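User: Assemble these into one structure.

Assistant: Restating your components, then the assembled model:
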Amino acid sequence: MLLLNHLWIILVLPLAGAAINGLLGKNWPKVIVNWVAISSVSLAFLAVLELVREFSHLADSQIPYGGNYFNWITAGNFRIDFALQVDQLTVIMLLTVSFVGMLIHIYSTGYMAHEGGYYRFFSYLNLFMFFMMTLVMAANLIVMFVGWEGVGLCSYLLVGFWFLKQSAISAGKKAFITTRIGDFGFTVGILLAFWTFSSVDFGAMFRQAATMTPDTMSHAGVLTAIAILLFLGAIGKSAQLPLYVWLPDAMEGPTPVSALIHAATMVTAGVYMVARMNPVFSRAPIAMLLVGIVGALTAFYAATIGICQTDIKKVLAYSTISQLGYMFLGCGVGAYAAGIFHLMTHAFFKGLLFLAAGSVIHAMGGEQDMFKMGGLRKQIPVTYWSMLAATLAIAGIPGFAGFFSKDEILDAAGSGPHANIWLWLLGIIGAGITSFYMFRLIFLTFFGSPRYDEHKTHVHESPKNMTIPLMILAFLSIFGGWVAAPHLVGGPNHFEEFLHPVFAAYAPTAGVEQGASLAGSAGKSGGVAPSGGMELLHSLTGPPVIVAVIGLLLAWWLYIKRPDAPAQLAKKMHGLYTLVYNKYYVDEIYAALIVRPLLWISTNVLWHVVDEGIIEGIVNGSAHVARGSGSKLRELQSGNARSYASWVVIGAVGVTMLLLGILGMVH
Amino acid sequence: MSLPFLVFFACAILAVAGAIVLIVAREPIHSALALILVMMALAVLYILLGAEFIAAVQIIVYAGAVMVLFVFVIMLLNAGVEERTDWSKIAKWIGLPLGFFLLLEVAHWLAHSSVGKAVANGAGGPQTAFSTTELSTALFRQYLFPFEATSILILIAILGALVLARKAE
Amino acid sequence: MSVVPVSYYLVLSGILFGLGVVAFVFKRNIITIFMAIELMLNAVNLAFVAFARAHNQLDGLVFVFFVIVVAAAEAAVGLAIVIVIMHNRETLNVERVNLLKF
C-alpha cells in the first residue's frame, strides 16, 4: 500500500528531474542530462505500474482512494488542501501519460541531440510531466487548475524553446494567451462551483450534485452554468472552435513537444476534465448538447482544413484538433468511456504520427513541406511502416486501435441515449475526410518519385533511440484497441467495464431527458441485441468503415493514380480552394476583429490616456505643483528689507486684531 | 478749556507734527530733530500724567543720550538726501493703509470693548503724582532681577558696539 | 480742574504708533527707519504711563523704565551695525542691502 498512501511520490519524481536538470544541468554533458531526465520519468512510470498493482487490490468501496497532503489555503469557509486521488479514470490517464511520456523522452535524446539548450529542454519536459500528473491525480478543482495552468506554462516554454526565433516566441505567446481566454471561463466556473457546493472537492461536489434536481433542456440552472464555464476552459486548452488557433502555430516547437503536449497529453486535459465532471454535465443537458455540437463541428471543420495543408506537421495539428472534437463528441452524447478510450488510442497513434513525422523531418535534414518529399518509403522503412500503422489507426480501418474507439463514439452519436442525427452526420463525414487527408499525407511523403534534390539531401534512417519508440507505439496503435474487441461479437467491452464505476457512481436516475443509462454498460441500451456474428458484420460494414475506405481510395486516386488531378481540381474550384488553403482566414479575422482593436485600445487609451495622461499626470502634476508653489513662495525672499518689514507689520496687525478681539471678550 | 486740556492738546499737536515731519523730511538730520521734538512733547505729557521721574529719565536718557547718539552717527556718516528707490511693491501699497488700520483698531477697541470702555471713562483714583521713592523701592525689590539683567544687557551692548565698530585688521 | 481722560492719551498713542509704522515701511534710509522704531517705542511708553495712571499702579512706570534702557542698548548696537554697513556697502539705502535673496 506504499504508493497509494504516498501518491505524491509519483509527482515528485519528474519534479526532481526538472529541478536537477534545470538548476545544475547547464554545463553537464548530454549523457548525464539524459540519465537524469529519463530515469526520473521511467521511475515515475514504474511507480505508476506499482500503483496500478496496488489499486487492483482495492475493494470497490475504497475507490476513489486519496490522500490529503497539506493544507494549502484556508480563508474562512474556503479551504483547499493539496489532495490527490486515484480511481479508474486516473489510472487510465496516468498510464497513458507516463508511458507515452517516457517513450517521447527517449525519442528526444535522439531528435534533440544536436540542439543547444539541451538541459533546458529536458528540464521543461520533466516539469510538464509533473504538472500533467498533478492535473490527473487532483482531488479538487483547484489542484487540477494548478496542473492545468502548469501545463500551459510548459507548453509556452517549450513552443518558444528556440527563443531566438521570432515566430516561435509569437507562437508561444499565442498559445498562452488563447488558452488564457478559456481559463477565464474555467476560473469563473470554479468560483460558481464553490458558491454552489461550498467546496471544490470532487467527492463533496458530486455528492451534493446528486441530491439536486437535474437541469432540463428548457430550464438552465446553476449546474448548466458551471458546466458551460468549465467547458470554456476546455475549449481553450483542447483547441476547439473558436479557440483552436494556437495549436497549428504551436508546431513551431520541437517535434517531440508537439507529440507529447499537443497530441497525447496536454490537449486532452479538457476531455479529462469533462469526463471527471460527468456528474455535473450529466445533469445539464444543454451543456452536454453544447459539448457535442462544439466537438462535432470542430471535428468536421478542422478535417476540411487538413485537406489543403502542405506542411506535414500542420496537417497533423489540424488532425489533432479534429480528433479532439471526436472525443468531445463522445462525451457530449454521454459516451464518456468512449471519449476516454479515443483519448488513449489517440495518444498512441497521434504521438506516433508526430514522432514519425519528426523522423521524416530529421531524415530530410529539416524539410517539412510534403510537396518537397516523395518516394521515401524505401529509404526510411521503419519510419514508413510505423507511420502507416498509425494512419490506418486514425482512419478507422477495422482491426486497428482507432477503429474501435471511433466506432464507439459514432455509435453513441447515432443511436445512443443522447443520439443526434446531425452530430452523427458531421462525425461520419469528418471521418471520411480524416481518412482522405491522412492517406494523402502518406502518399505524398512516401510514395511517388522524389520531388527533392537527391544530391543535396542525404536521406537516412533515424538512430535507435528514435526508432524504438516508434515501433513500440506502432504496436500499440495496432493492438491497443483490442481491449474493446470482444464487444464486437457481443461480449463485454473491457475498457468500458473498467471505467464503468466512474461514470455510474453519480449518474442521474431515469428521467425523461436522461434516458435509461449512460455509457459504461456493455452493449447498447434499447433495441434488440443482435447475436454475436451479426454484430461483427454490422460493425465491419458500418458507415464509419465505408467512409474510411472511400477516403483511402480517393487519396490513392488523386495522389498516385492521377497526380496532376489535384492541381486541376484546385484550379477549377479556385475560390473554395483558396478559402480552405488559407484556413478560412480565421487568423486574419481574429487579428482584425480582436487583436488590432485591442492593440489600438492598449496603445491609445491605456497607454497614452491612462498611463501617460492620468497616472503620470498625477505624479508629475504633484511634482509640478510642489515646484510651482515653491518657486512662487520663494519670491517672498526678495532680499528687500522693506518688504520684510511690511510683512512683519501685516502679521503684527493680524495678531493685534486677535488679541484685541479676545481681550474685548474677556471681562 | 482748563489748563490740563490745553497743555495736552498743545503737546499732542506738537508730537503728531513731529511724527509727520519725521515721515516727510528729506534729510535724516531733520527727522532726528523732529524725533527729539516728539520726545520733548511726550515728556511734558508724562508730567501731566504724574510720572515725573519717568519724564526726567525720558529727557536725560532718551532725548539726551540716545538721540544725541543718532545725531552723531548721522553726522559721522554724512547721511544726506536719500535716493529715491522704490523696489518693494508690497511696502508701497501696504504702508499707508496699515497705519490707518492700526489707528482704527485702537479706536474700535476703545469704543467697543469692555476694558476700553472702562478705561476710557476717566482716570480712576486721586490725581497725585507717582512717588519716586516708591518707584525705586519697587525697582529694587520686586523688579530686582530685571534690573540686574538690564545692566548686564547694557554691558553686552557696549561690548557688541565695540566689536562691531572696530576697524578690520 | 477737570482731568484729561485716559482715552485721549491712548488715542494719541495709537496715532503716534501708526505714524511710526508708516515711517517704518516707507522710509529708505536705515537710520530713519531706526528712528521710526524709536517713535513706536515712545508711543508705547505713553500708553504704558497712561494705563499706570488709569489703574493707579507703579508697574507701568517700571515697564517704561526698562523700555527706555533696552531702547538705549538697542540703539547703541544698531547704530554700530549701521556704521559697519556703511563701511562695507557704501550706502545707507536699505534696499541696496539685498544680498540675502533667493
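Residues 6-90 of chain C form a domain with the Helix Hairpins fold (CATH 1.10.287.3510).
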